């Protein structure tokens, strides 16, 4: 099962999830350089920003420029996050390739994150789908339904998997092109990942499924492997693991793109990415964000190679 | 398959594998304190030393005292490593519970490590088994046959799995009670782990099988999960990941005992270990080895819990 050589899509989310809580401004030119280095290394999908108020997330005030630069890179899938209906028109007009809508399975988390109940958020997702149909040129834009806190929540504790699967069903019925499960706070175990993705894949049929895994407690790549084994073929990663968890100082947040690619290739999957070409990006990030810890084992240990003495 | 609640043995190897390359002396009393903290936390098997010349490994010059202290802890399995026949009598006389004999699947690595061909090492293992039979009180001592560089070698590159399985067969025929595969240099991928342990378990029948996994390239726990999924139920770990790889400065070496226990428990396995009781040991180690980096995500992020604001 699932361990044949085949393609796995690695989506970079560092420019969005990595930067969103960082208050030090990351210059637009550096974001564009980031895009170029990753695309040249073979990354084919990048989430470039969140459509949030520039007051709440000033890091994305330059999103029009960043999206334009990303759109100019041939073959790159340009993704962005939206959290409500209000900014959907702006996002569609910005002409991204894919939008990621987020609803937390934990009602408390959803309320804190977007000041809506999960039901209100789902109503807005339906409005987003309807808005997409309203103009011909918007119909090509993919809509992914992401379920945050799918494996547990720092506010509510454990999250009933039935609640997650119910939101997934609603996303599918509403017209989502992809369903993503996110381990927003790093609570997932490989056993949970195996079970929940198995159940999700039974619902989704031919629909795209993806995993947004965090590495807060060191289980990130084990969770990726568990998802791979049951058939998931699309994973988010953040360069250098940028985007630590605000509730666990010093802890890693997103899984490290470099390590993710290394593991996938070591398992015989094809990612299209040359992991060594990603490494110079770490220097770029450190130059602009000297106070951020970058994570990653591959960057420290390098590839498996014979040592000549 | 394999993901039911059942028992997994976590064997601590930090006192041997962690300390063996560290030249700063680690005081005997601190080793004994280490044993006590781990046993009190529920660790039931500890490798306490290597039977090597005190010139080569001065860190183990106090092994008689450390073994005596370990033997005094009720219920603790006291293990040690031997690398040849010469020190087997000393090891049997020291009255440990289990001895771990090591042969590298890479002939070059075996020659560098113990100055013998793998065939010469296997001949000595047979002599060790014969020696055990020569005295009644030694027959209770378990002999584990460990295969080092089973997943690749920094001197030879890739290692033919058939060579690994052939050594395993010879160990079994010689009378080993356990066969261990070690990813000595951190080259293993989950795919390799899955395949090689599946093939090994087809050979070993009811014999104990164990995994000694390194985390050099960040795949340590993913490799553990892959081994768990095919039925391996015995894993080595090192407290704080002590024992970095000498060929990759700054890289982690052994998988971190705390993170291993955390993942196993999160997957519903029973380890008998209270992971939070292991954490004070990190302070003990740092006190005596202030220059060693301790690794581990659990120690930074803590358990999955609801945050009260």
How would you describe this protein?
- Two copies of one chain form a homodimer.
- The longest helix of chain A is centred in the middle third of the chain and has 16 residues, at 118-133.
- Chain A has one domain (9-301): Aldolase class I (TIM Barrel, Alpha-Beta Barrel), CATH 3.20.20.
- In chain A, helix 2 (28-41) runs parallel beside helix 3 and helix 2 (28-41) packs antiparallel against helix 11 (280-288).
- Helix content of chain A is 39%, strand content 15%.
- The model of chain A has no long low-confidence stretch (mean pLDDT 94).
- Chain A has 309 residues and is of the alpha/beta class.
- The interface between A and B is large, with 49 and 49 residues.
């Amino acid at each position: 099962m699932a361990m044949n050589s085949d393609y796995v899509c690695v989506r970079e989310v560092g420019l969005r999830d990595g930067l969103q809580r960082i208050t030090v401004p990351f210059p637009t030119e550096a974001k564009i350089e980031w895009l170029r280095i990753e695309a040249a290394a073979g990354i084919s999908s990048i989430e470039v920003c969140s459509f949030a108020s520039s007051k709440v997330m000033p890091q994305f005030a330059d999103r029009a420029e960043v999206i334009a630069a990303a759109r100019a890179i041939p073959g790159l899938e340009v993704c962005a996050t939206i959290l409500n209906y209000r900014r959907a028109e702006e996002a569609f007009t910005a002409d991204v390739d894919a939008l990621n809508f987020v609803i937390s399975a934990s009602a408390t988390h959803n309320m804190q994150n977007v000041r809506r109940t999960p039901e209100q958020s789902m109503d807005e997702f339906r409005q987003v789908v309807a808005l997409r149909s309203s103009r011909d040129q918007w119909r090509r834009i993919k809509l992914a339904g992401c379920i945050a806190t799918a494996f547990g929540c720092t506010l509510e504790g454990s999250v009933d998997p039935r609640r997650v699967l119910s939101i997934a069903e609603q996303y599918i019925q509403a017209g989502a092109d992809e369903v993503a499960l996110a381990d927003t706070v790093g609570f997932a175990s490989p056993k949970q990942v195996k079970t929940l993705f198995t159940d999700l894949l039974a619902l989704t049929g031919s629909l795209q499924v993806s995993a947004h895994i965090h590495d807060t407690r060191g289980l990130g790549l084990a969770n990726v492997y568990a998802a791979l084994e049951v058939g998931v073929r699309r994973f988010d990663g953040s360069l250098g693991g940028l985007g630590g968890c605000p509730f666990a100082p010093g802890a890693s947040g997103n899984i490290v793109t470099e390590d993710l690619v290394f593991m996938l290739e070591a398992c015989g999957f094809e990612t299209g990415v040359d992991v060594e070409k990603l490494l110079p990006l770490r220097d770029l990030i450190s130059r602009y964000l000297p106070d951020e810890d970058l994570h990653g084992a591959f960057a420290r240990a390098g590839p498996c190679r014979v040592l000549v003495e």
